[in-house]
Fold each of these.
Amino acid sequence: MNAPGFWDDREAAEKAGRRRGELEQVIASAARLDRLLEEVSTFEDLDREGEAVDGDLGPLLDQFEAVLDSMELERMLSGEHDAVDAILAIHPGAGGTESQDWAAMLYRMYVRWAERRNFAVEELDYQDGEEAGLKSVTVLVRGRDAYGLLRAENGVHRLVRISPYDAAARRHTSFASVYAYPDIEREIEIAIDEKELRVDTYRSGGKGGQHVNVTDSAVRITHLPTGIVVQCQNERSQHRNREMALRYLRARLYEREQTLKDEKRAREEGAKMEAAFGSQIRSYVLHPYRLVKDHRTGVETGRVDEVLDGKIDAFIRAQLLGRTRS
């Protein structure tokens, strides 16, 4: 980084700077493990000499395990785009108001999770539900490893509860899909032919407030070859909404290409791929008992309220590490 001309290419220099920060973090964690290991060895020597060390050794081993677990998680977040920001989309399944309310509950859960990690959340598009909840929401989650973490949440989430919208107080099952895309705007260039786009503008609605409703500032873009539709209505400017919609489209196209490659590789290897989108990954049961269970890893907890308040790291960690914890 001290070489002459290093900063001439600003983008490459910033990328190298980010990589340096990542490596420094790994080195610092490894150094801390070494120090903890030396302390553990010291206490083991004292134990052999007859000293009582249980009160000190236990917490030390807990620290060692926590650092090691953190490093292992970082290793699982070493994918090409894991460190970048994430574009998160949530859509209710069939079921009208009940599923729309569930989608809103999930949205709040992820916002609270992001707040706990000091991540920033920027709404790109929000469509209100007919009576309650939401029809769809797309947000940009800014923070280190945002995509790497949120990709563990891809799939369908299931809620079982006594419906507050049912006068007969019957039990209902609702579904909502969650999908994260890497925000690769600064990482890779995705070429889009303007002739392959249909761009529609319309008057913004929903939570934006009066200032977004006075002009046709919202933008909906359809990519004709793939049928992918993206939209943005968060900004006052039609130009800005178009820019953000294209950003979302590039992320969707990149993810689609990666998925196609993975499916082709699986066919060539004779493997059976489970589609991430459309598969039920987790159940949140509020009645007749209270339990959240991840069907991929077996991780479960009865602390449903805490989970819905954003405490989902245990599920994310287990999925990324490929472990089953109960």
Note: Confidence is low (pLDDT under 50) at residues 208-212, 268-278.
Amino acid sequence: MRKTRLLAFLFLPILMLAAACGVKAPPVPADSLLPARVSAVGYRFDEQGRVVLSFQAPTINRLDKPLAKLGGFFIDRSENRLEPGFCPGCPVTFARRARVEAKRPEGRDAVWGGWYEFTDELAPGYVYHYRLYAFDAKGHYDRAQFRDLVVYYDTPSRPPDAVRAKPDDRLVTLSWPPPERLADGRPLQDLIGYNIYRSADGVAWARLNADEPWPLTVFEDHQVENGRTYHYRVKAVRRFQQTAIEGGSSAAVTAVPVDLTPPPAPVNLVAALTESGISLRWQEVEAADLAGYRVYRRADDEDRFSRIGPALLKEPAFLDRTVKKGHRYTYRVTAVDKAVPANESEPGEEASMGYGP
């Protein structure tokens, strides 16, 4: 009994201390709080032939928890000349190429993340290996948490010459001759296609072909509106080793699609006698761009139809007050749209009526 009381007396302070402080979980390794890897790493080439790396910043740390702070990104690069002694699969030596600061997220509830770009100068005949790391506010990062990218680079192709843009109804057709040489004058032997860019109403240039270069020298743009001005540029793409290298832009060409489709012809034309002349009525034409109607008449002693009345009728009715007694008249009606120049429909069915004895 005495021994039991003694043990209780000795352990009581320890139990009280544990109760006061609470039970703590094991400490979290500091490396686990570092940023996770960047994602969606890709590349493109600008008008000066420089490579533009793009990537998306992480929003989480290595524990898959929201990232508390992002400092920026380190970009390491290795460059190796493509010569007979180069070993594509051999280890390469990296050097720090750039430090890109992270952009502070806007808004109270905003999180770290977003898209970033880095532009780099390349030399023809080299292969470049990149490694991209995300670091925290103190510049710390996990060397095992990187994304890599390999770019083989050589002189780009010359742009296509004499690009032509033919406007049509809700359509612009582009055509061009293929380039035959690289920008340095060497023959072009590895052309794989073209990238086609469009701008409208001051909007930034956007590529029209999807993921792969367009393989033909003719391209039809059906995603256009009549009466709107569009600008186009074409770039040739060559395949050098494993890299698609985009060349410079052709001179921009402009096209304005035009409305060449007339509205439907009026139907159910009816002529009737009135005290003032011959009254005409027809069924209203349903067309979004309808501007009005035109009436044509031919008397029994005339060889051809002539337009009568106002230049454009807004309503599907007309009273011909210029008829003469003793004559028979045949009428036609057309529909006209709002295009410039306007499109006129074919005449609908004819209607005839005699006036007077």
Note: The first strand starts at residue 39 and ends at 45.
